[in-house]
User: What shape does this take?
Amino acid sequence: MNPAYDRIKAVIETHLGTRFTDGTLPLMQAFDEVNNYSLMSGGKRLRPVLLYGVAEAFGADTEDALSLATAIEMIHTYSLVHDDLPAMDDDRYRRGQLTAHAKYGEALAILSGDALLNKAYEVMFERLLVTAHPENFARAAAYISKAAGTDGMVGGQVVDVQTENQPIDQETLDFIIENKTGKLLMAAMVSGAILGGLDSGALDRFTQAAYHIGYSFQLVDDYLDVKGNAQLLGKETGRDLALGKNTYVKYHGPEKTRADATAHLDQALELLDMFEGEHLVFIYDIIEFLKHREK
Ligand code: GRG
Assistant: This one.
C-alpha cells in the first residue's frame, strides 16, 4: 500500500502473533493453532493500522495504541469466524484459505471466535492497568466495546441476518451498513483520536469523517461481491445474491454503489481538511486506496 501502512502493519503482525501461546495441554496447544489460523491469515489489517496511525499522528502513547490495535483486529477476526459459520453465511473460504469451521469443525470455530473476542478484552484490560493515560485509554476502549456490540456490529448483523430474502427500506439498509461494518471501522479511527487527546470539537468532526469512511467500506464490499475477483478477494463472490442479502448493490446497482462510495470518501476528505495536513498524509493515502480497492 504505502511505506507508513506497511511499517505499522508489520508492527501489528508481530504483536498479534505472540498472543495465542497459552496452551500447556497438547489439546490447548492445538487450540492456539486454531486461533492463530484465523488471526494470522493475511487480512489487510485496515482497522488496527487506522487506529495506530491516527493515534501516532495525534501524538498518543504508541504502546496504548498497539494494545487497542491488537484488540480491534481480534474482535474483527472473531466476527469473520462467526459470520462464516453454517448458521450465518456458511462460507468455505476467507482470506484465501478454508474458513475456520471448514478446517477445524464447527465446535472449535465457535470456541475460537469466543476466544478471540475474550482475548481482545484481556489485552485491553492488561494495558489499562499500566498505562500512564488511564482515562483516555478507558474512553477509547469503551468506544470500541460499544461499536462491537448490540449498538454496533452485533446489532447490524442481527438486522442483516433477520432480513435476508425480504425487501427493506433505505433506513433499514443504512442501519445494516452503519452498524455491521461501519461502526468498528469508525471506532478504529475515533479510538485512535481519543488516545491522541483531541478536544471535543475536533473529535466530533473527526468522528463524522470516520463515519463516511466506515459507510463507504461496506458499499465497496457490496460492489466487490458482484464485480470483484474471487482470487484477489480470497473468498467466493456472488454470495450476497445467493444468500438473499440486502445490499446497497441490490437497491442501487453496482455503478451507483461504487460512485456513492467515492462520494462518501470525498466527504471524509472535506471533513479532514481542518486537521494539520502532514499529520494525516497516511489517512489520505488510505482513502485513495479505498477509492480504488479491489480486495
Ligand atoms: C458475527 C457478530 C458478527 C458480526 C459479523 C464482519 C461481519 C459482521 C460480517 C461480515 C460480512 C462482511 C464480509 C461484511 C463486509 C465488511 C467486512 C467486515 C469485510 C471484511 O473486512 P476486511 O475486508 O477483511 O477488512 P480482512 O480479511 O482484510 O481483514
